[in-house]
Amino acid sequence: MKKPLVALALFASLGSSTLTLAQLKPLTYLAIESEHLIASYHLGVGFQKTTHLIFPSAVTYVDLGSGSIIAEKAQGAENIVKVKANAAGFAQTNMTVLTSDGKLYSFLVDYEKDPKIINLNLAGVAIGGGASVVQASKAVPRKNTIEATAAEVSSKKRTLRRKVMAKDDMVLGLHGLYTVDDLFYFQLTMRNKSNIGYDIDFLKLTVRDKKLVKRTAIQESELTPRYVYNGQSTAIAGTKQLERVYVVPKFTIPDDKVLIMELFEKGGGRHLSLKITNQDILRARVLPASPATVATQ
Question: CATH number of the domain that 178 lies in?
């Protein structure tokens, strides 16, 4: 008879606990007052046009509500973000931008086939007549050395064999990865296997979660190249290829994140995405230090 008594005692104990929880006051929520709210700007973006947002301070963070839009900092400018649609007719989404002065900017973004506003000045200064609103990136030392090193990397033989993405007769491949003077040199090949010319819009470098789960926002951190070798060439004729070298400040990424290289076609849909892991980054080949660097040591 001991077991039934034990079970009865346990049941009584659980019932007592349930009663105690039921007697607790219901959870209360703090009221959201009007002064707590941050208003959002409305932004219309298109698929054929790029919208530029000018901020008063350097941009430190950009979050996109969905993959329906794409955004990146303008090369050579710390306070300008360019945005465009990644697909036509997308449902409304949002974008959040943080700047180095501690301010947060919120945008509700809708698709517009032919957006009328393509340059939005949030810096609070009047522009016109060529007035400058660009906050240039920090001084880049040894520019000539960087260009020479990038040219040297572009002529090297392929050292990576499995970092290739092929789609719609377009191929994006990472043929080599090198490092020197706290910089990474990504040796990229873009090959057009079709008879239709390919116009490059831009290539975006972002660090994001390795396994994206369903959620309302994609957390990603964008990398801005310090220099792009052969960046002035933006068209790849049919059955031709283009070699580029992207120079990026040295970085590492956690094992649960990856570097995504996304190539976008201007006015088309042949977009390519290449995944680079932290292990790939750590295997970067070391180049000899530049003479200028050695002389200062």
Answer: 2.60.40.10
Q: Give the model confidence (pLDDT) of 97-154 as tens digits.
A: 999 888 999 999 999 999 999 999 998 755 444 445 667 655 444 557 899 999 999 9
Dihedral (Cα; 106, 56, 143, 233), 10-degree rounding: 50
Contacts of 246 (CB under 8 A, 6+ apart): 185, 186, 188, 203, 205, 225, 228, 229
167 and 244 part of one domain: yes
Instruction: Pick out the chain residues at pLDDT < 50.
Output: 6, 8, 10-12, 17, 19, 127-131, 139-141, 213-217, 292-297
Looking at the domain assignment, is residue 81 inside a domain? yes
Tokens for 277?
A: 């892991």
Q: How many CB atoms lie within 10 A of CB 76?
A: 15
Strand partners, 77: 136
pTM of the predicted structure, to 2 decimals: 0.56
Last residue of a domain, one of 68, 91, 121: 121
CA distance 113 to 132: 29
Specify if 186 maps to a domain: yes
**Is 292 contained in some domain?**
no
Question: How many structural domains comprise the chain?
Answer: 2
Residue 192 lies in domain = 143-287
